[in-house]
Amino acid sequence: MNFIYKDEILHLKAFQSIFDEIKTVDHRMGDNIQKALESAVTESHELLNKASTKEELHLALIKEQIFIQAQSSQYLNISDEITQKKNRLLEFKPKVYHEFMQEVEYKVSKLMRDKKQIMCNTIEEDGSWYSGLRDSAKKSGGLFVNATIKGINTISKEFKGKQVFEKENLMDSQTIVEALLEKYLSSESMAKQIREILSVASKGYEKKWIEQIALNVPSINRLSAFSLANSAKSNLKVDFQFGSTEQVLTMGLGSAVVGTVGLAMGWHTMTYAMLNVFPPVALFAAIATVVVGVITKEKAVQKRKKDIDDAVNQYHQYFLVQLYSLKLASLDNKSTSLYMEEMGKKMIDEAVYQWEKNYFGNLKMDHFQKLNQSFVKHLMYVNEVLDEVN
Question: Is 249 strand, coil or helix?
Answer without folding.
Answer: helix
